[in-house]
Design brief:
- This protein has 365 residues and is an alpha/beta fold.
- Helix 6 runs parallel beside helix 7.
- The chain is built from 13 helices and 13 strands.
- Strand 12 and strand 13 form a beta hairpin.
């Protein structure tokens, strides 16, 4: 099926730099878009062509109604739209308007971020799990401020484990709050990025917004509150159970963390990892997972996350290969370390027994 859309000055702004948005639509919606002198030609399956036409129609509708796209929002929306068959450009833009407040508009920049925001709106407890830079904390704080501004909750409680402090906490200068503030700084940064500093300070002074280590949560019941636990991978099992049972009436909880960055002692199991196993089937709790494709920081961050994941995968595969290998064990420099060598074992007629370097005697198996 082929169809044509007339080119107008307004519609040209949809194309993007060097027509990058058109290429994104082609790849994501399985269509071919050809430029003509005064129109563009769309070719593909009827349903794909119709969806592409809807993108252009939505774009013109939004412009006529005064909508402006800033800071790469259009590219982000098209990225979400092409990866989520239920999304429309108009729906994404209008959802962003509903989440506007203060200095910012909350706009998902990937399909997983959109599902995350939808999950927070529809569920009372949501876990956001994924690598650094995927917007887990920032979007959660944004949704908390939106709920506070619309009077759906009366306060915001932001918690974080101060795992790195440990016993060193007492050596830091100042009051207890001043001692733990450095570990809570990312939460402060998100607040000041979204609201005017005077407003943030006023909320903090009146305890409308409370930022505290997770240890301060014990024994409390949090009613009419939007509660966020950040860096949850560094909670112990006991701390996680304590936190998720603090939820009171008319409250929401969002727990965020990255299970690849656990700073707990090796003898302690992460409360976030355990929560995935224990709470995965509990009705009313939603788990949202992110990957490197959701990273919205500097483009190098996405590559760095991917490189670490590839490195981890190679090491895990190497470990499996070594365990399953029938290669012989070879002495190394000091005579104390052995290494499996599959290539050499394949070229030898038989596996030679290991011997003691000093005596030449065979080592018993």
């Amino acid at each position: 099926m082929k169809t044509q859309i007339e080119i107008s000055p307004n519609i040209e702004t949809l194309f993007g730099t060097r027509d990058e948005n058109l290429r994104m639509l082609e790849d994501g919606l399985n269509v071919t878009i050809a430029m003509r002198s005064d129109s563009i030609e769309i070719e593909g399956a009827p349903s794909d062509v119709a969806r592409t036409q809807q993108v252009f129609a939505d774009y013109q509708h939004l412009l006529r109604n005064g909508h402006t796209f800033v800071n790469g929002d259009l590219g982000s929306m098209l990225k979400v739209l092409t990866s989520d068959g239920s999304a429309t450009l108009r729906g994404l833009a209008e959802a962003g308007k509903q989440r506007s407040f203060g200095k910012r508009t909350v706009q998902p920049k990937s399909a997983n971020q959109r599902r995350y925001l939808d999950a927070i709106e529809k569920n009372d407890m949501v876990f956001g799990i994924g690598p650094a830079g995927t917007g887990k904390t920032y979007l959660a704080v944004a949704m908390a401020i939106s709920a506070l501004a619309s009077k759906r909750v009366n306060r915001i409680v932001l918690a974080r484990p101060a795992v790195e402090a440990g016993e060193r906490l007492g050596f830091l200068p100042g009051t207890l709050q001043e001692k733990v503030d450095p570990y809570l700084r990312p939460l402060y940064d998100a607040l000041y990025d979204m609201l005017d500093p005077d407003r943030v300070d006023r909320y903090l002074e009146k305890n409308v917004i409370e930022i505290a280590p997770i240890a301060f949560m014990r024994g409390r019941t949090l009613n009419d509150a939007f509660v966020i636990l950040d860096e949850a991978q560094n909670t112990t099992s006991e701390q996680m159970k304590m936190f998720v049972t603090r939820l009171g009436f008319n409250s929401k909880a969002v727990i965020t963390g990255d299970i690849t960055q656990i700073d707990l002692p090796s003898t302690s199991r992460s409360g976030l990892v355990e929560a995935v196993d224990v709470l995965g089937e509990v009705e009313g709790i939603r788990f949202c997972h992110f990957d490197e494709g959701d990273v919205v920081r500097h483009h190098l961050v996405q590559r760095i996350v991917r490189a670490y994941e590839d490195h981890k995968g190679r090491n895990e595969q190497l470990s499996l290969d070594l365990k399953g290998s029938n290669g012989f064990l070879a002495r190394t420099n000091g005579g104390s370390q052995y290494a499996a060598n599959r290539e050499q074992s394949a070229s030898l007629p038989e596996v030679l027994p290991a011997t003691d370097a000093s005596s030449g005697n065979r080592i018993s198996e």
